[in-house]
């Protein structure tokens, strides 16, 4: 049963990675826009979100 659960999690991770890449792209654009507009609060929010997305991606790749 444990192997079945691990297999399902792996499949979910494989499906999540493309979505995660799109979320990262969007957040990078948001960060760029915030930097250009000199919106320091949004810059920090985007950096934080990107860090969370990065950590999730690393967990999925492991």
Number of helices: 2
Low-confidence stretches: none
Beta-strand fraction estimate: under 5%
Write down how many β-strands occur, each being a DSSP E stretch of 2 or more residues.
0
Shape descriptor reads elongated
List keywords for this structure.
62 residues; mainly alpha; 2 helices
Give a description of the structure.
This protein has 62 residues and is an all-alpha fold. It has one domain. The chain has helices at residues 2-36, 40-61. α1 runs antiparallel to α2. The longest helix is centred in the first third of the chain and has 35 residues, at 2-36. The protein is elongated.
Secondary structure layout plus pairing:
Blueprint: H1 2-36, H2 40-61
Helix pairs in contact: 1-2
In short:
This protein is an all-alpha fold and 62 residues long.
């Amino acid at each position: 049963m444990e192997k079945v659960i691990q297999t399902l999690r792996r499949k979910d991770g494989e499906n999540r990675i493309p979505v995660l890449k799109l979320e990262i792209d969007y957040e990078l654009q948001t960060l760029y826009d915030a930097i250009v507009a000199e919106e320091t609060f949004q810059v920090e929010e985007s950096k934080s979100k990107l860090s969370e997305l990065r950590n999730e991606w690393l967990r999925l790749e492991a």
